[in-house]
Amino acid sequence: MRVTILSIGSRGDVQPLLAFGAALASAGHEVRCASFPKFEPLVRGAGLEFLPLAEGRMSQESAAEDGRGGPMLLRFLKDTRAVGGRRLRDALDACDGAEVIVANELAMLVAWQVARQRGAGLVRVRLCPPPRVANGPLARPVRALAWLALRPWLASGSREAGLPPLPHREPLSRLGREGVIELHAYSPALAGEDADAGGSTYVTGFWFLEGHLDPAPTPELLEFLASGPPPVCIDFGSMPDADPAATTALALEALDGAGQRGVLIRGTRRFQGAEFPDGVFAVDGVDHGELFARCAAVVHHGGAGTLAATVRAGVPSVVVPHMLDQRAWGRRLHELGVAPEPIPRRKLSVERLRESIAVAVTDAGMRERAVALGERIRAEDGVANAIEIFDQRLAPVAEKPPATVTND
Q: Could you tell me the pTM of the whole model?
């Protein structure tokens, strides 16, 4: 079966789908992945064919709004509108000849339009439990109002790509009723109310891409880890930061106040230009699986990829969410008792971070629950479960393209 994966977002949005894609390829399917050009090495490293999707550029003047869901969403919409036509054309090219299109949440509208145009089957992938409002009595009116507001932003891209106009009614919420399967790529242990979704929805377990995509710990890092008690790792992934120096100073002061050693993962923009004390080690990038299991706790943004690696390692989290899906993950880990109450990025302070780190490191019950959760996660095989579901449902999905939605 010819399969094209469409993934829009950060590395955490791409990497799980590559795990699924690599498994599909091993099972004999012909798989390609279309994503942003910067992820080409990651895609090819997973053994998949790569095709580019046009990438927007977050406006620099909005960076100071980091951590506030509204401005972050607004920047995403601006970027989507700016490159919408090119991105749709790229997706059409990537899906030429595809029998099935697999897409994550951020790529779903693109995938739906392309699947409708190409006559391909569609498989939806969700990396985070749906927001609570999605299952409440206000779900339908909220979706209708959101679509009414978003449709004008997105319509120009469809026109530019030569695709039919977007429907007046929001199309994606109907896909489940039409039998389009949705794979939730996270553990049932973290799914909450979503665990027994039923119908066309399946909670499979996390999708881990095995192998060393990031550098193994250097000898210097290993020496640091062995020289004292387990440190606290701080990693905010690819989240933008208006003032990296201030974030660095805040993190160092919080670690010192909590009496903890630390490992700071710099990424591309964080924790720059600072002198680090003896009890803190800074690294540009490192394999999460190799590092997190050797830490006392992990401070992170709640992105799907980093969160999955943390719970798999069996250590407590301190979640500092920057946007909506990360807030949902932060709440869920707190409900499970493996993390203190999440700290929204705009409310992050030395005092709050210090107190949360102290709780995560010293609360014996929290550590026991984190260890037990890690054991459960490691016993699951989300990718294998997803492949089994895909193969069981493949024929009807591939043979029956999504129903045409009229512009009513």
A: 0.88
